[in-house]
Design goal:
It is a single chain. This protein has helices at residues 52-57, 130-139, 144-147, 161-164, 193-203, and strands spanning 7-8, 27-31, 38-40, 44-47, 69-72, 77-78, 82-83, 92-93, 96-102, 118-125, 128-129, 153-154, 159-160, 171-176, 179-185, 211-213, 228-233, 239-243. It is of the alpha+beta class and 244 residues long. The chain has one domain: Fumarylacetoacetase-like, C-terminal domain (Fumarylacetoacetate hydrolase, domain 2). A hairpin with a 5-residue loop joins β17 (228-233) and β18. It binds manganese (II) ion. Manganese (II) ion (MN) is lined by residues 46, 95, 97, 126, 213, 215-216.
């Protein structure tokens, strides 16, 4: 399955374009399964170490510490099914993750009402320049150089929750060239989806259009040019990404 990259011009600003001193940036929009409608993206939040086995493989304690988040840029998203091997790295890792798309925002959202804020779910990849991230970690510096690079967030189409329900269990699996690399289950999330939304909303004002990458199970590893990654989450279509 190949999806084309979809980028929308911001039509709401079209009347005022003469006031911009340069061309205004384009808005990013995600495809929706079985529809020609689009989901406009505002922010992309990502949670770190949200499966115990992955925390351990990265050298950390699997105990339930408070969650932590970083961000990717909306225009790092890519819906094409192609991942171009990035520059300045020789150790790019796959991280398969369930992605949550919000239709409603707010602050201090309760766990009990958090799922009312969800539009739908998608299968995504938090591609990571692990060597660069490792250097930043060592120096106590921010992670953007390892995480928020061009096309670092491949993502399949969003499935509305009206169709998928709100999955809290189900296998998460990534294969590379047919070999299983990552396996886990949504029921192993250290911080589940309502908890994540609630926690994030205490620190940030969430809004419609926000995405949350919910963390990756263990088995993260390097890819090379020519690899085919098949991202599977129970109940969703497989999302296939080839490395070029
Ligand atoms: Mn991740």
């Amino acid at each position: 399955m190949t999806l084309t990259v979809i980028i929308l011009k911001d039509v709401s600003m079209s009347e005022n374009t003469t006031r911009f001193v340069i061309q205004p940036p384009v808005a990013v929009a995600a495809p929706i399964k079985g529809s020609d409608k689009l989901f406009p993206v505002r922010r992309v939040y990502c949670i770190g170490r949200n499966y115990a086995a992955h925390a351990v493989e990265m050298g950390h304690d699997p105990d339930r510490e408070p969650p932590f988040f970083f961000q990717k840029n909306p225009d790092n998203l890519d819906f094409s099914g192609v991942f171009p091997y990035p520059e300045k790295t020789s150790d790019v890792h796959h991280e398969i993750e369930m992605v949550v798309a919000l239709k409603k925002g707010g602050t201090n959202i309760s766990k009990e009402t958090a799922l009312d804020h969800v539009y739908g779910y998608a299968v995504g990849l938090d591609m990571t320049r692990r060597d660069l991230q490792g250097e930043m970690k060592k120096m106590g510096r921010p992670w953007e150089i390892g995480k928020a690079f061009e096309r670092s967030a491949p993502m399949g189409p969003i499935v509305p929750a009206t169709e998928s329900g709100h999955p809290s269990a189900g296998e998460v699996k990534l294969t590379v060239n047919g070999n299983v690399r990552q396996t886990g289950d949504l029921n192993q999330l250290i911080w589940n989806i309502p908890e994540m939304i609630s926690y994030l909303s205490a620190y940030f004002e969430l809004a419609p259009g926000d995405l949350i990458f919910t963390g990756t199970p263990s088995g993260v590893a390097a890819i090379i040019k020519g690899d085919e990654m098949v991202c599977h989450v129970d109940g969703f279509d497989d999302f296939v990404v080839t490395v070029e």
